[in-house]
Amino acid sequence: MSDGRLPVRRRWIGWTVGVLLSLLLIAIGWVAIRGIGAVNDLQQVAKGATQLKASIAAGDLDGAKPLARSVAHNAESAHGLTSDPVWHAFGALPWIGPNFRAVSDIAEIADDVASDALTPLLDVAADVDLTSLGFAGGTIDLTPFAEIAGPLGTADAALTAAQLKARHIDADATLPPLAEAIRTLRSSVGEAATVVGSLHGAAVLLPTMLGGEGPRNYVLAMQNNAELRSSGGIIGSIALLHAEGGRITLQSQASTRDFPPLETALPLSDSTIALFEDRPGRYLQNITSIPDFSEAGAAIAARWQGRFGGTVDGVIAVDAVVARHLLAATGDLAFGPFTATSDNVTDILLSEIYAAVPDPVIQDEIFAQAAGALFGAALSGADPRALFGALSDSAAEGRIRIWSAHEAEEAVLARSALGGTIPGDGVDATYVGVLMNDTTGGKMDYYTRAAIETSIGTCQGTPTTQVRVTWTNTAPADAATSLPAYVTADGFYGVPAGTVRTLIAVYGPEGATPSHIDRDGTDEGVQTAMIGDRSTVQHEVSLAPGESTTITIEFQGTGAGERLTEVLHTPLIDTPDTTRKPLRCAS
């Protein structure tokens, strides 16, 4: 007879399953409680960071210090709550695992930034106003920079590391609210890394570059984005700045008419000649076609010295959109027949002036007036905080490029976005790029727009990086007759009035080679070149008003298929919409 009890083996199985289920429920409860606590801590970090930013901007260091301590405490707590073995075990699970890993990564980033970046930044802020860098009355006080360079370097390193960690979080594998939080984090950390990196670079470079150890002279090249070149636009006007003891003055201005074409071109790199022949070495206006600003800057300096003599210590190139940012700091300006505001200055400089002032000689005079008025207002009447904010925004958009004739300074600049060089690929990021250069001969790029898509994955079993560029001419249908001849070029260079002709060069990851090239799904003749170790494919595209075209290039080989693909591009009037899409193999 049976005593009604289960066999021993079945009892053990039931007991084991019960224990496992109990442990699972305990684990779920554990991570739920810790997760709620971590989310609350991170919300407090976000709230405190906003308040801290406002306090520092207002110069309220007494109020900033307790806020910084609170941010650090909450960030450390969130990191602790999301770094225990149980939490990591849930992070290894399919589907839900990426969400746990993402929260843990966010908490770790917040903790690292709070502990390794906030403290040195507050130490620096106690010695110098980070929002103005000691700028007053047209002069920057160079004295504090030697002391603040070290702490800024520590903060810069911490934020750079945090930025790389944020890039590694797979937002696409997480739930939508968390994915949005990850993208916000990336944006915030990226912005902070750019600003602090610029401040660190300034602390290292400004004492010598602004004449702290002797006078300096810099050529200022102003680019016109209505006629595109690789680094922004054709050089429309040019000037010489003098720096001494932290004070900058405008010494002289010149027109591109002062620089006739050279019979013998300046020396150029093989990549520049392959893409643009010797034109950048003969025409001042075309020097900014050179993809690498360390080469372009040296060429601009050589042209100035060849024409006017003297010593040139460096070159600063800015585009017309910088004026929009600066006018937000200086207020309205009058030059020629125009009154410019931050809302209309790019329209005036890149479009309206050609209809209102048909004579190119008078146009150049007005451009010189605008540059002089803007420079004077920025150095004498602008609020320092607003001014440095405008310059920071311009630099973040790639609209300011600097080259130094002094080797040690150029080495620092070349490692920063201000140097205008193409960064090397590494384990943390792979770079691709798109360069636009106008060959219409007019000012039609006021009407051009771009969109850039990147995709990574595998095509036919091979790691692949795909770059897709859509280029559009938004000029009115009657552009041939409604726009000034100076804008359309009126067919002078063989391009029908109203049509835009553009060289579009796409370069891929280092070591990768093009495996597929098409334009609107069909093959056509292209130029190829190497920019360093990067294969580059260049199309010449002609678009009538309203037309659009899409270029697709797939790169395969070393560096291709990497998840972290950063896009560099020519600064346009309107920043291109740059997106990452799932890979659809064109091949």
Descriptive account of the structure:
The chain is α+β, with helices and mostly antiparallel strands and 587 residues long. The protein is 45% helix and 23% strand. The protein contains 16 helices and 19 strands. The chain has helices at residues 8-57, 61-81, 85-91, 97-127, 145-168, 176-209, 270-276, 279-282, 293-308, 321-330, 345-356, 360-380, 384-396, 407-414, 479-482, 485-488, and strands at residues 135-136, 139-140, 216-224, 234-244, 247-255, 314-319, 333-335, 338-340, 400-404, 430-438, 448-459, 462-473, 500-507, 512-519, 527-531, 534-543, 548-557, 565-569, 577-580. Strands 5-4-3-6-9 form a 5-stranded mixed β-sheet, sandwiched between helices. The chain has a 5-stranded mixed β-sheet with strand order 15-16-13-10-18, with helices on one face. Helix 1 (8-57) runs antiparallel to helix 2 and helix 10 runs antiparallel to helix 13. The longest helix is centred in the N-terminal third of the chain and has 50 residues, at 8-57. The radius of gyration is 28 Å and the shape is globular. The relative contact order is 0.08.
Topology:
Layout: H1 8-57, H2 61-81, H3 85-91, H4 97-127, E1 135-136, E2 139-140, H5 145-168, H6 176-209, E3 216-224, E4 234-244, E5 247-255, H7 270-276, H8 279-282, H9 293-308, E6 314-319, H10 321-330, E7 333-335, E8 338-340, H11 345-356, H12 360-380, H13 384-396, E9 400-404, H14 407-414, E10 430-438, E11 448-459, E12 462-473, H15 479-482, H16 485-488, E13 500-507, E14 512-519, E15 527-531, E16 534-543, E17 548-557, E18 565-569, E19 577-580
Parallel strand pairs: 3-6, 10-18, 11-19
Antiparallel strand pairs: 1-2, 3-4, 4-5, 6-9, 7-8, 10-13, 11-12, 12-17, 13-16, 14-17, 15-16
